[in-house]
Design a protein that fits this description.
The structure holds two protein chains of two kinds. Chain A is an all-alpha fold. Chain A contains six helices and no strands. By secondary structure, chain B is mainly α. The chains are: A mainly alpha, B mainly alpha.
Chain lengths: 232, 225
């Protein structure tokens, strides 16, 4: 790793850190309190930012998987694996924060509303992906199989979104407000806060991705060195 | 033309193998019947009642899903165990032809299982109104399930815990398919009601088309050694 790219990674990390601090300030102090939901709504900034990072995660898994199948380069497989692990983290955060949000607003921890359902299925796909990686017989197979499954998983997400919206249409609608995005109006300050929060989490995602890929590279190096020593 | 003949040869091979091990195929069909009977006790389904119309579609598709996953898993596990997949890959046959042949034979086998299960369902529960539209809906659902199931069965057969791996991989991916096909089946159970099915129908067709094409393209990466 060259010094320049090290510097750039550090810069990325610092920017993400700064944006998170600014985002925290904006989410708790700058954005006005929402009329109907009160203070609780502020978790929505973290929730939506985690959703964004979780979605990017599966897209990167699929792109890296496709690139691996084309090039057979181990580097792409590392990216896919790292992205899946970080994606699981963000989508878990999205599910948990969604639940915390739902409790005071709707009085229940969980509702089968389209967005929560979509995210639960995305989370299941992520977990299945990691289980597949853990159970394949050898490294080359892990990489090929998980690339194939990652591509299927990412293609499935738009279909899941479509189906959970249609499904809501035929089951009794308990929470009308979820039918079309957010019915509560966002003020200018809220929108700005939302953008900062999403940008912060996306930068954090990429920073973690780079670090995780680097860790895997170092691990591969160690394995190679051990092999050399053993061969002596 | 040769491509189609290759596909046909794979189908013929699979069906011959299936007919020679008829006891396994009949065991899978028997399993589907057992699932139906368990549901009867779980939900206390009254013959010909209103409940059949609301719960029937779900009962039917759970029975289909559980039984088809056994068939799907077996169709590639058998090839792996006996080493016949390696033989198949050595023949000058296009990988895509192997995939399509496998999808077709899985589709045929699953359809036969579903037809028998459906007849048993009608006899056992006597649904008050059932439209013939159910047949195209089941065909579309089975096609999508075979398309993605054949690819994922090939993936699962290369892992250490393949019996568990296939449902873990297949069910999350096929949730949109089940949502759409169960909505359509519900419509077939209540043909008089004005349920809007256009969304579900286009979703189901989109699922079939997308995953047939993608799995066709990806299959060679899974079976290659």
């Amino acid at each position: 790793m060259s010094r320049l790219s090290n510097r750039l990674t550090d810069l990325l990390g610092l920017t993400a850190f700064a944006l998170i601090i600014i985002g925290l300030y904006m989410a708790f102090l700058y954005a006005p309190t929402e009329v109907n939901m009160g203070l609780v709504y502020r978790i929505f900034f973290f929730h939506l930012a985690s959703v964004a990072a979780g979605m990017i995660g599966i897209v990167v898994v699929a792109i890296a998987g496709a690139a691996y199948l084309r090039t057979n380069a181990r580097a792409w497989d590392r990216v896919a694996e790292a992205s899946a692990e970080i994606g699981v983290m963000f989508s878990t955060a999205a599910l948990v924060s969604g639940s915390i949000w739902a409790k005071p607003i709707w009085g229940v921890w969980w509702t089968w509303d389209p967005r929560l359902t979509t995210f639960l299925i995305l989370w299941l796909i992520y977990i299945a992906y990691l289980m597949l990686r853990a159970s394949a017989r050898d490294d080359a197979r892990v990489a090929r199989f998980s690339a194939v499954f990652g591509i299927l998983g990412a293609l499935d997400v738009p279909l899941v979104i479509m189906s959970s919206r249609i499904w809501r249409g035929i089951s009794p609608v308990l929470f009308q407000e979820t039918a079309q995005g957010f019915t509560f109006g966002l003020t200018g300050e809220m929108t700005q806060t939302l953008f900062v929060a999403i940008a912060a989490f996306i930068l954090l995602y990429f920073y973690l991705l780079i670090q995780r890929v680097r860790l895997e590279e170092i691990r591969d190096e160690v394995v190679a060195i051990k092999r050399q020593l053993a061969a002596r | 033309m040769t491509f189609l003949r290759q596909v046909a040869a794979i189908i013929r091979k699979d069906l011959t193998a299936e007919l020679r091990t008829i006891e396994i195929s009949s065991a899978i069909i028997f399993f589907a019947l057992i699932v139906l009977i368990i549901f009867n006790f779980a939900f206390e389904l009254q013959v010909g009642s209103q409940e059949i119309q609301t719960l029937g579609p779900g009962v039917l598709w759970v029975a289909f899903a559980f039984s088809s996953i056994i068939g799907l898993g077996r169709s590639l596990a058998v090839e792996k165990d006996k080493g016949s997949l390696d033989g198949l890959l050595l023949t000058p046959v296009d990988r895509g032809a192997i995939y399509l042949g496998k999808v077709a034979s899985n589709f045929i086998f699953t359809s036969v299982m579903e037809a028998i299960t459906l007849v048993a369902f009608i006899i056992l529960f006597n649904p008050p109104s059932l439209s013939l539209l159910l047949i195209p809906y089941i065909i579309l659902g089975t096609l999508g399930l075979s398309a993605v199931g054949t690819l994922l069965a090939a993936v699962a057969s290369g892992t250490l815990i393949r019996e568990v791996m296939l449902p873990i991989l297949l069910f999350p991916i096929s949730i949109p398919l089940f949502m759409a096909v169960i909505a359509l089946t519900r419509h077939a159970f209540q043909p008089a009601s004005l349920l809007d099915i256009s969304g579900s129908l286009s979703l189901l067709i989109a699922f079939d088309v997308i995953f047939l094409i993608v799995a066709f393209l990806l299959f060679e990466y899974v079976v290659e050694e």
